[in-house]
Amino acid sequence: MGLNDTVSAERPHIAFFGCRNAGKSSLINAVTGQTLSVVSDHPGTTTDPVKKAMELLPLGPVEMIDTAGIDDIGELGELRVQKTNQILKETDFAVLVVDASRGISSFDEELIRTFKKKNIPYLIAFNKSDLLTKIPDESPENHLYVSAVDMRGIHELKETIAHTFKNDTKQKQLLVDKISPEDIVILVIPIDASAPKGRLILPQQQTIREILDTGAIPVCCRDTELPQTLAALSQKPALVITDSQAFERVAAIVPKEIPMTSFSILFARYKGELSMLVRGAKALRSLNDHDRILISEGCTHHRQCGDIGTVKLPAWISAYTGKQLVFDFTSGGEFPEQLSDYALIVHCGGCMLTPKAMQSRMKTAEAHQVPMVNYGVAIAQMHGILERSIAIFSDEL
């Protein structure tokens, strides 16, 4: 998969942090070889985080992020710092940019503590080292003296980021360990008003690609043509994967001896969350009148009539529980830090969120002892087919 084909959620996110005028923007421009960020001697030039996709060899496609100064001041400055802190939730590798002529500040020290607390691998880039009369002969392994002016240490910075991250990266898989070459895998893809015109959504694309990479055979159909598809096959499918909203219809059609799951459950496993989300599904059975439910989506899109997040799920949950419930909704980068008012969080599959960002949301939920479930797992639970849909992963739960 090339750089332009690799979606943001699948790229390692490398973020540059530091105080105002430490030279973050100049340094990230030097690393990317492009004018990613506006550079100025005036403190606070960078406001909202700026992101750029690039190829960082030998690592591959990455997303570089420039952030506002962590020491910004004033009411607007506080908002900028909040935006910078939000980036920490999706950061896979951090570069702390320090003005070499000034040294590490108390703000930098606080960031280092945060990196350690959140288990974010990092290095400290002492920028503007061209202004120093002498570079220290010895320094800690994760300290690097660089200059965005004369490009000193830029190659070493890129190599260090790439090699450090490469060593920490594990190969993620959707279902390659559950299928074999020449297996037939049916993908049930309903085409309704919410389906994007002329294309498949990301989870469907990624699943098809992994099936093809495995040497297995993907067969795609709508739920309305599923009976004919099954009848036309001379070989029994090894697996059926369906959209969550068609779970109940598909489960009634697919013989019980054929394993079945959903795209949502695959991606919950892919991002390392399946066990917690399955536990969260059980909380649907213990909701009480007037409990508050948060329904959160990782992306933003135009809401349509019959939207799953704001219309269908609240109706299904209310009917399943028989309770009078209160629903709140968030989307995109919005996710509350304070969750103690909620009895349950119902989240989308998170296909547009990085694993780091999704896990950050789950850790926040755990910290507040609020159960969390995703759309697909919740729908399976409410239709009485959760056990069947996760049976293929029973050894992991």
Structure description:
Helix 5 links the parallel strand 7 and strand 8. This protein is globular. It folds into three domains: 166 residues, Rossmann fold (3-Layer(aba) Sandwich); 91 residues, Rossmann fold; 107 residues, Rossmann fold (3-Layer(aba) Sandwich), CATH 3.40.50.11410. The two termini are 31 Å apart. The protein has a six-stranded mixed β-sheet with strand order 2-3-1-4-5-6, sandwiched between helices. It has a four-stranded parallel β-sheet with strand order 8-7-9-10, sandwiched between helices. The protein is 34% helix and 18% strand. With 397 residues, it is α/β, with parallel strands linked by helices. The chain has 13 helices and 14 strands. The longest helix is centred in the middle third of the chain and has 15 residues.
List the topology elements.
Elements: E1 13-18, H1 24-32, E2 50-56, E3 60-66, H2 74-87, E4 93-99, H3 106-117, E5 122-127, E6 143-145, H4 154-168, E7 184-188, H5 202-214, E8 217-221, H6 226-232, E9 239-242, H7 247-253, E10 260-262, H8 263-270, H9 274-282, E11 292-296, H10 308-321, E12 326-330, E13 344-347, H11 355-367, E14 372-374, H12 375-382, H13 386-390
Parallel strand pairs: 1-3, 1-4, 4-5, 5-6, 7-8, 7-9, 9-10, 11-12, 11-13, 13-14
Antiparallel strand pairs: 2-3
